[in-house]
Every structure is written in structure tokens, then in C-alpha cells.
Amino acid sequence: THTFAPQELSGFTLDQVAFEDGKGKCPYDPTKGHTGLIVDGELYSATFNNFLGTEPVILRNLGPHYSMKTEYLTSWLNGRPHFVASAYVQESAASSTGDDDKVYFFFSERAVEYDCYAEQVVARVARVCKGDVGGARTLQKKWTTFLKARLVCSAPEQQLHFNRLQAVFTLPGADWQDTTFFGVFQARWGDVDVSAICRYHILEVKKAFEGPYKEYREQAQKWGRYSDEVPSPRPGA
């Protein structure tokens, strides 16, 4: 870069390259949070799909499969999420059940499942399966394995919840079951901004995705815990 020490360059050539459409691969606005990673030649990205930054999307493209993305519904991604990180976990390794590899996404978004008048932002972890090819009739070219759960980071003794996720570091282990996620969170405590680091083990995250889940009830127009028998295959499997 040679700042304050200019250098002469000889033999410089410029090769012409083709530009590709970056829609769904990165945000229009560079100030918007986004994340992405490449797995086996395919780009998994979490960003905004339109110029106004009102259509959040988790998308896969650039590879041999069809392009896949989330449905544009508030039950999938709500409002204007702040995407911060993504991680690839090879859960198929030595799996006795034929489990698929997963891609995890970390972000904050406005919650829709709580009965409160004030806007509430919560931290989330979402995942999709690498082998997801979409639905045959419904959810064509849409994720059929998309799941999301709340990331809880709190200080109970102060009744303080850290809901705004700022960064995530993935620490791999010798085996995928040793994977650990470290999240950096922020909250407002009185007039002071406070931060915390919380740790999540991959098996704890996996257990949350395999546990009880909520559904939207049209008559009550609110979210409630699903209480009937879990269908087989279960949602997101």
C-alpha cells in the first residue's frame, strides 16, 4: 500500500472480468448486518434481498443445487434482523441416523411470539440442512429444514437479559459434538450500556431444536406452544 512512501509499478496489466448480480449475496446498504460462508462451492448468505432493506433472506446459491431461500414471512424472519455470524457444522460425521450437515445463522430480530406492547428484540440462532432441496409442491425452492430458536443470555440476579447479539465466535473441537459457540451480547441497564459473553454447546443447541416448538394460531392471532402429537417427520427434520 506504500503510504507516505510511493513506489513505481512496472509491468502492470489489467484483466477484464465479468460481474455477477450480488442480490441476495450481500446487502445493498453496507451498514446492514450480513453474514455468509461457502460450503462445498455453495454460498450460504443471510442478508437483505431488496434495495429498501425490508426483505431479510437466508439464501443458498452459486452451487449445483437450485437456489434456496427463506419465505418472506414474519414467522421466518421478522422486521429488519441484524445478522452477525454463520457456522458450518459437519453433523453427518459418524452419524448412526444418517443426519445431515447443518449451517447455523446468528442474528437479532424483533420478536413476534410475545404478548407485549413494546417492541422486543431477541437474539436468535437458526439452522438449515446442507442437503435441503426444497419442497415438491409447497415450499418449492424454499427451505424445508429452516428452524430458529431464541438465544438466552441473562444475569438472573440483576433481572437483566442481553438480547442484542453483536458477534459470535465458533470454536470447533476434535469432533463436531465438541463445537462451542461464544456470543457477545449487549443490553441497556439503566443509563449504561453493558455487555456479556455467553457460551453455547452444540448439543444444547441441537436439543433446543428437537424440543417443544410454537405455532401461530389464527383464531387467537398469537403464538402458542404446540401441544398435539409431534408429526413425523417433525418440522425442520
From TrEMBL:
InterPro entries: Semap_dom, Semap_dom_sf, Semaphorin, WD40/YVTN_repeat-like_dom_sf. It comes from the Eukaryota. Pfam families: Sema (PF01403). GO terms for cellular component: plasma membrane; synaptic vesicle membrane. Keywords: Glycoprotein. Residues 1-237 form the Sema domain. PROSITE patterns: SEMA (PS51004). One of its GO terms (molecular function) is semaphorin receptor binding. Transmembrane segments: none annotated. One of its GO terms (biological process) is neural crest cell migration. This is SEM4C protein.
